[in-house]
């Protein structure tokens, strides 16, 4: 052997047209710092020449230089089609489905690595596994998720050049309904626990004040309430289902332009002790306009539903 020479050519060329012939005596490994073009299919040509001037040549398979990372077209998210009533909260404890869209125009997405871990302890709930680059969703199943727990799914997307990008999404779990509370009414039939409010259950014409306490949710918290009123159980002929926001402070929720009814001297104060029981959370209050006026002696039912942040 007299010498070897090598060069780089475009895929359809027969002679080096990207990096011209380089003569070398190396037979196994060669490193060169030439800047090669991206987004173009290339091949390496190698030729060996003997002392008689005869030669033999070979070429590599075509390859593409891809310096870019995969592109996130739709970020990783928890699917709202499985186990979700409200974004970021799961109401099931054994399955999580995540979805995404990642692409790579140069070399394509080769594979994904996906895992699931628990925020509070950092414990891996689902060990990383490799899935094909053709997929755009994955379901973690046979899980044992804890109410109030926060879980993070992590996705690593890799193209055929070996360049990867990482993204993650978190979701909390609450499979249980809130703890039931009760109306906080200062009436003859209510015990005095220091949680009544003045005018907490009072009426004037077609307007009613109500107050309630004790609805709690240790996992996701209370988000809102719905109230309806009628002359029968679950009736709504006096008040169609009306939504009232929850407050972490004792406030008065007024419906549209209806002011709070002031029947006593100060309708916005609480009971004699001036505060609610700490374990019951603040007293909630609302002033609502009914569809018709009330008359003395009428009986009606208040139907109150607490909804947590997981819905």
TrEMBL record:
InterPro entries listed in its UniProt record: FN3_sf (IPR036116)
Domain of life: Eukaryota
Protein name: Fibronectin type-III domain-containing protein
Organism annotation: Macrostomum lignano
């Amino acid at each position: 052997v007299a010498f070897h020479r090598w060069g780089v050519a475009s895929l359809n060329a027969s002679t080096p047209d990207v990096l011209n012939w380089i003569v070398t005596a190396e037979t196994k490994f060669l490193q060169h710092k030439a800047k090669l073009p991206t987004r173009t299919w290339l091949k390496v040509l190698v030729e060996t020449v003997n002392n008689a001037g005869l030669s033999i040549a070979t070429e590599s398979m075509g390859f593409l230089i891809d310096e870019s990372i995969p592109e996130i077209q739709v970020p990783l998210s928890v699917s709202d089609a499985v186990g979700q009533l409200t974004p970021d909260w799961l109401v099931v404890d054994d399955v999580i489905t995540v979805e995404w869209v990642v692409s790579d125009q140069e070399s394509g997405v080769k594979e994904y690595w996906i895992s699931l871990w628990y925020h509070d302890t950092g414990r891996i709930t689902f060990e990383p596994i490799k899935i094909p680059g053709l997929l755009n969703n994955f379901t973690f199943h046979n899980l044992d998720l804890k109410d109030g727990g926060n879980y993070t799914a992590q996705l690593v997307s890799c193209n055929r050049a070996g360049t990867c990008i990482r993204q993650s999404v978190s979701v909390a779990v609450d499979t249980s309904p809130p703890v039931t509370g009760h109306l906080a009414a200062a009436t003859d039939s209510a015990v005095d626990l220091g949680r009544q409010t003045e005018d907490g259950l009072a009426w004037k014409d077609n307007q009613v004040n109500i107050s309630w306490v004790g609805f709690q949710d240790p996992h996701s918290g209370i988000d809102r309430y719905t109230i309806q009123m009628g002359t029968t159980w679950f009736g709504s002929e006096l008040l169609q289902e009306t939504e009232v926001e929850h407050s972490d402070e004792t406030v008065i929720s007024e419906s549209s332009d209806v002011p709070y009814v002031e029947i006593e001297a100060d309708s916005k104060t609480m009971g004699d002790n001036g505060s609610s029981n700490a374990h019951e959370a603040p007293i909630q209050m609302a002033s609502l306009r009914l569809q018709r006026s009330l008359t003395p002696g009428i009986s009606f039912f208040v139907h109150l539903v607490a909804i947590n942040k997981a819905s």
